[in-house]
Amino acid sequence: MSAPLLQVRDLQVHFPVFGGGLLPRQTGAVRAVDGVSLTVQRGEILGLVGESGCGKSTTGRAILRLLEPTAGQVVFDGEDVGALQGESLRKLRRRMQIIFQDPYASLNPRLTVGDIIAEPLATHGLVSGRDAQRRRAQELMHQCGLDPKFVRRYPHEFSGGQRQRIGIARALASDPDLIVCDEPISALDVSIQAQILNLLQQLAKDRGLSYLFIAHDLAAVRHLCDRIAVMYLGRIVELGTYAQICDDPRHPYTRALVSAAPVPDPEIERTRRRVVLQGEVPSPLSPPPGCRFHTRCPVRQASRCHDEVPALREVDDRQVACHWAHDPDVTGTG
Amino acid sequence: MSAADTHLVVDERELVAGTSLWQDAWRRWRRNRVSVVSAVVLVAVMVFCSVGPLAAELLLGATYDGQDISLGASAPSWAHPMGTDVLGRDVMARTMHGGRVSLMVALVATAVSLLVGVTYGAVSGFVGGRVDAAMMRFVDLLLSTPYLLLVIVLMAVIPPSSVSIGGLDGSFVLMFAALGLVSWLVLARIVRGQVLSLKQQEYVEAARAIGVPQATILFRHIVPNTLGPVIVYSTLTIPSVMLSEAFLSFLGLGIREPQASWGTLVSDGANAMVVYPWLLLAPGLTMTLTLFCLNFLGDGLRDALDPRQGET
């Protein structure tokens, strides 16, 4: 296998919490991301799934260095992203882009669509001259399914789906290798979601792009992703191919997540058994010891789950962070 | 791709023109009659004060400091449409001249507050952390100093003649300095607050992800989005600065004879109010009209620039 495009090793992002007295001092830390390791191959689409607050967006932003990681390493095409400064970091930014969740907040309301899409072109000196930049912006608009004659319009004159296309065009402008898609469809109407997913899939195929596709439910990533990583409370609990995760989940949390996704077939849907988790997600301020999922786990085993942090280990060609993943007696799979 | 390319060549004339937020606001503002009328009146007052003295001198031979003691305080007449004061000076010429001073003080103080306040606040909010804390404590410090005391000390300690710049009287310069010194503080706070919330916006994050330099992010993506409230606040600053000037002059700390401002004229007029009412009415009414219009203009701009706020 060739060297992966993106390699993340033991990434940690902690947000300090200040409190007390006249002189504030750090009293704790929100462990938003606490030891995430993953790889994205060239041309691969990796899904990153988990409920809100589990650290998936933080992971994406730390990879792009929009947030400074507390610890760990991000290697993009052989370069250590964390070690780059100034000009070399700016050069690298051309090759990693991001598409945001909220198509209303992610476009500057004072700039025309043409200016927004041309910004990466001007910043990195890819196309010089305002006319040439506008033409390139129009080409990108066309490729993203927007009418190029609207290049002089402002974001507020477009619908949510169209705005998301503008965001995609901007991300494509610098001709990146990797795009972090931060829940790009969850703020859109269901009818628009499919269109945007198809567009993203088409673009990935045409341009050989890699995506880190962040989503909060499996339904969104089902048809797009080659592999899926499931996150819970700042850690990856299971990582495998789409078929492995959806048809044969091994981690009890993944099983609950998979069983929550409705099946578009009334016959099967009627017999679908849901694994309903008890309780709330613990606070990332003071995550539980041992396995982070043990407070809600339906197959928790005495003492070991509480005492020992399960490593992300290879089990049947996929990675699972559960002490009992290989033990059908406990997990009830087999 | 060639087929797609040819179809992409969109003629300049075929492009659909967008409507920017500024154009939107302009359209909304034009529908606000009171505010538009106020703007027209303000322009008229400015013309009256800037061109007026020249016209008055040519047509009536009246200047703000030309005395004719034999006239004394005479009531309005054809030669002196607003009458004359106790020294026989034409009140209309003095009102126009006073308007110049008052408007100039107000505009300069506002310009200073815009320039210093916006930059200071934007940098403070954008850099954040300790720099922000230090910069804002400095603003707090200045704000908590009684500004009147500051101005009085400034006026008393520095002899006006020592700071005159060119043809500008020293008392003007001191007035500009004193009012400029305090007028930017609140604006800096407003801008800082705006910047703090704007820099968390996703489009700012997108710009960072693209690799746009920090200064460009601040002045292209953040500052233009703070300008709405800034413009509104500035329009409402002008009247307050004019009132401060009038107040200082009223106390005898500002403009000195034979110069005049609306403040000094009103002060003089108030002393003779019962005997020679025109001495108070002419400058008083002009000033009131101006302040009135400025407030209506500011309200109109606020409604136009921030349509969500004005509904209540």
List the helices and strands and how they pair.
The complex is a heterodimer of chains A (334) and B (312).
Chain A: E1 6-19, E2 25-40, E3 45-49, H1 56-63, E4 71-76, E5 79-80, H2 86-93, E6 96-99, H3 113-123, H4 130-143, H5 160-173, E7 178-182, H6 190-207, E8 210-215, H7 218-221, E9 227-232, E10 235-241, H8 242-247, H9 252-260, H10 266-271, H11 304-307, E11 313-315, E12 318-320, H12 328-331
Parallel strand pairs in A: 3-8, 3-9, 6-7, 7-8
Antiparallel strand pairs in A: 1-2, 1-4, 4-5, 9-10, 10-12, 11-12
Helix pairs in contact in A: 3-4, 3-5, 4-5, 5-6
Chain B: H1 2-8, H2 21-30, H3 33-50, H4 52-60, H5 91-127, H6 129-144, H7 147-157, H8 170-198, H9 202-210, H10 214-250, H11 262-271, H12 278-305
Helix pairs in contact in B: 2-12, 3-5, 3-12, 4-5, 5-6, 5-8, 5-10, 5-11, 5-12, 6-8, 7-8, 8-10, 9-10, 10-11, 10-12, 11-12
In short:
Chain A is an alpha/beta fold and 334 residues long.
